[in-house]
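Blinded run. Sample ID left blank on purpose so nobody reads anything into the name before looking at the predicted structure. Input follows.
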Amino acid sequence: MRGMLKACPTTSRRSGGYHGSRPRRRRRRPPWTNGYHGHVIDLPDRDLLDASQSSLAWRWDDSDATLVLRQRRGEIRAVSAEKARELAALADCLVGDAWPDLSPVIFGSISRIDVEASGEQATTAWMRQFDVADEPHVIVSWDEQTALRCPTDLFVEAWSDLLLPGPDDAVVVPPSIGWAITYQHDDRYAFGRRQFDDASFEQFIEAELHRLEQTRLARHPPCPHCGKPLRTALAQQCFSCGADWHPRREERP
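Blinded prediction complete.
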């Protein structure tokens, strides 16, 4: 199945990736709301949806998917759109400006592997050496619309069907945020274990979220009419509400 690239209705997290024929999404980091408490990710039941509601459901329903993924697809949960946006903001903090690596400020020594060069069995062994299955679940964030939660042991066994080269850029993290994995669309992974204590980590994330939001506002200021982000800081028209404040012809010098 890894050689089959199918159209998917979402766009990728970062540069170079795509989902189907849609263009790469703009990086917009929403303000953090209530999905992150202290140093853990909170996903209440109301934000966990049936896996069939995910735009990626074809991956575990496909007849070419690994047997374990098809048998255990009922354990996968799609994440609501609101929480997916919050998780994307956290994922951007964990990556910072280091993509496709993790932020060296948050994580200590970072281990990397190239799936094409190492092979799938070696990649599975690479994940297992970090004892990631000690965490019961992981959260996979693709972008501001797409995230899911699945058992960690299922992710380790079926990562090759959950994350595909070409379409995907993603961040994988357990609710404790004790470690994180990045997946780049050219089939490379990076793993890092958090080096901050909980209090320091919380302070860093709050500061980073503020910094990223200020950067977003500078690049995409709000429309003066509807408040939604403009496409550029120099925009004179809003493509959300249609407002246009270009100088009229008689006003032009």
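Unblinding after everyone has recorded impressions. Confidence is low (pLDDT under 50) at residues 3-37.
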